[in-house]
Amino acid sequence: MPADSPSTARTSLSAPLPKPGSQSALREQNQQRVIAALMSGGPQTQAELSRQTGLSTATVSNIVKVMAATGIVSTAPTTSSGRRALSVILNDNGQVAAGIDIGRRHLRVVLASPNYRVLQEASVALPLGHSAVDGLTAASDLLDSLLDNGGIRRRALLGAGIGIPGPIDRRTGTVVQGAILPEWVGINIHETFSERLRVPVFIDNDANLGALAQVTWGPHSAVENLMFMKVGSGIGAGLVLNGSLYYGNVGVTGELGHTTINEQGVICRCGNRGCLETVASTSTMIELLSRGSNETVDTQRIIDWVLAGDTAALRVIDDAGVAIGRALAHMANLINPETIVIGGPLTSLGEILLEPVRRGLARHAVPIIGDTTSVCMSSLGDRAEALGAAAVVLAQQGLAPALASSA
């Protein structure tokens, strides 16, 4: 499914229904619940909106008719579970959300409308070891450039979601030890970016945002328990449990890259020995395949070698895949996910990487869990984290003020 044709998310709307007042007030409250569901989950059928909001299907149908007549939403025929249905799409009203993905060597920014359509997108390379100030400056400049290219006024920007490749203490908004960007440790990302971008800012770990993207922009909207593993310079996982992102106690979850795979292995950047990242990260792959090579080795070169059938590159990928599967098995035994999605820069390898991952999972998981857990590649490629960042903004920002101003 392409990223600008999202499927439905099942974001939980746990707030209780308002106490009945006047009929007009109740209709307005119910309409805002439908709008909130569309903001957080993208286009949905009326039946799905009924399940999310707790409203009856008849009530949702009436609300949709009114909103369609006033231009708040559009509708289109679709199918759901093999049956004809009506997809409800929130019109964008000129507003946009920014999704910013900052990696060890890259920066990607997307601009998306409230109806989950990508309006502008660009990526640039970042120098290895860049500081928070350098990353912020590059992100701000690229965001301004995309707004200019799209003819979008800055006041139309609802906010910016920002993904960072490392654990973030949600109590303080700071990057903590163990991040793939050690230069960012201790920096209050929320304050730093808010001051520069001058819009509401939402910070999260990039793997969490990748997981969110799978259930908003990707094809996994019906999955209640999903794990997204990003395999890149670092390795981390985002968890969707019972339909919601899981953050644990202080927000540091899914650090599968620091699962011990080999107790006699090399020292990891976290200080432990033999972590998964020392075996299966793209940085490790580059180091292994650079030995004895006169060529400059990067991730794309490894992909090219693998697809061309290079024996050494295939062995590195196979070893990495089995190790990843082993780590996934430990997590799967604990949370029993329905689906595991692999993301990051190696997604173009498809089954070449998935086969050893599945082999490692089957070897180390409880048999029934190994047999019933689906493992697949992300359909969003290296866009997932930025798209998830934009989805955070859309989920957090209501449309009521915009609708009022557009009247």
TrEMBL record:
GO molecular function, one term: DNA-binding transcription factor activity
One Pfam family named in its UniProt record: MarR_2
Composition-biased stretches (Polar residues): 1-14
Residue ranges, annotated region (Disordered): 1-28
InterPro entries per UniProt: ArsR-like_HTH, ATPase_NBD, HTH_MarR-typ, ROK, ROK_cs, WH-like_DNA-bd_sf, WH_DNA-bd_sf
Record-annotated HTH marR-type domain positions: 33-84
PANTHER family membership: GLUCOKINASE, ROK (REPRESSOR, ORF, KINASE) FAMILY
Family: Belongs to the ROK (NagC/XylR) family.
Name this protein carries in UniProt: ROK family transcriptional regulator
Originating organism: Arthrobacter bussei
Higher taxonomy: Bacteria, Bacillati, Actinomycetota, Actinomycetes, Micrococcales
